[in-house]
Amino acid sequence: KAHKIAVLPGDGIGPEITKVALELLQAAGEAEGETFQFEEALIGGAAIDATGQPFPDETLQTCRNSDSVLLAAIGGYKWDTLPAAQRPERGLLALRSSLNAFANLRPAVVLPQLAHASTLKPEVVEGVDILIVRELVGGIYFGTPRGFTTNDKGEKVGYNTMVYSESEVERIAHVAFDAAMKRKKRLCSVEKSNVLEVSQLWREVVTRVAKQYPEVELSHMYIDNAAMQMIRNPKEFDTIVTGNLFGDILSDEASMLTGSLGMLPSASISGAGPGVYEPVHGSAPDIAGKDLANPMAMVLSAAMMCRYGLALPQVAAKLEAAVTAALDAGYRTGDLMSPGMKQVGTRGLILLNGLI
Ligand code: NAI
Ligand code: MG
Questions:
Q1: Predicted ipTM?
Q2: 248 flagged as catalytic
Q3: Which residue from 114, 281, 292 has its CB within 8 A of the most atoms of ligand 1, so it is best to mutate?
Q4: Which of 29, 116, 142, 321 is most buried, judged by most C-beta within 10 A?
């Protein structure tokens, strides 16, 4: 039976990179005897222009009726003057929250062909393959009480609350252990339990959940040490699970190991119901429509969708291999160009198609 995919091309380079990703997905699926049924829907600026809403109800219904959601990017100059509440970005937040996507998966993989593009030494980053699982809808970004007050010296004070419940930690821990099972079976839980009670609870719950995954080797690390180890010896990490704030910082740090925005996929999943798979980069309005966009982050997002959303690891592997093969053959979009390589456009990377 066909796998139902809600496809949200969005704005800017979104439609261009979507086209390439769908063509490859189709080819990789055919090679493995799997069929996909794509249903396109509006989001972001394109949806505002057509319906007045950045995330129309019809789009939500399409997503809910699908096995997975594949999103490119939203936003652009045209909508930058709208008030915050009506901007394309709201569509993205509405999508993630209405699907209750509480787990954000961000891989940082350094391909040998691109190790020189990293800000770190090639020998430090070569072979890096990290998956960060970040809790996305709790922690200090959402905790209450929060606000401003005045202290007894009459000074203005700002405050937030870092709070996690057992069930919130449990569900993210399960996502992380499941992901680790599909990888090298090593999970590092990152918190600050030497200082924070919320982190003590985090460690307690993760340790408890670990009993259900005897094959996974669990370790614990304080966030400050983890941030340091990420730069000193990133190869020591396989899968990382952490809270919203620490994960925000660590995943941005990890992305810099790879040196290229155009290569980074992500997933936001709920554990039940469809997940959202999307590149980390935005809609790149500066290069939209010019056949300059690198479609690889989008292709790799489709690969994550196959691996984590559709349980099609063999299709995922085909897509990943196509990206590697194109790089091996020396094909580069402008953002990755270096001397001796062959520059191609977004469509040019459809040459990848022959490589599946
Ligand atoms: P951006 O990621 O769109 O672009 C940053 C720079 O990287 C630009 O120079 C762009 O040309 C380049 N770039 C990005 N993706 C690329 C690719 N695949 N291939 C080649 N070059 C690429 O971030 P920026 O400029 O801050 O935001 C532009 C618009 O995108 C804004 O409207 C912003 O709100 C939106 N945005 C949307 C996101 C999403 O849909 N998830 C995430 C981040 C920004
Ligand atoms: Mg961030």
A1: 0.97
A2: yes
A3: 281
A4: 29
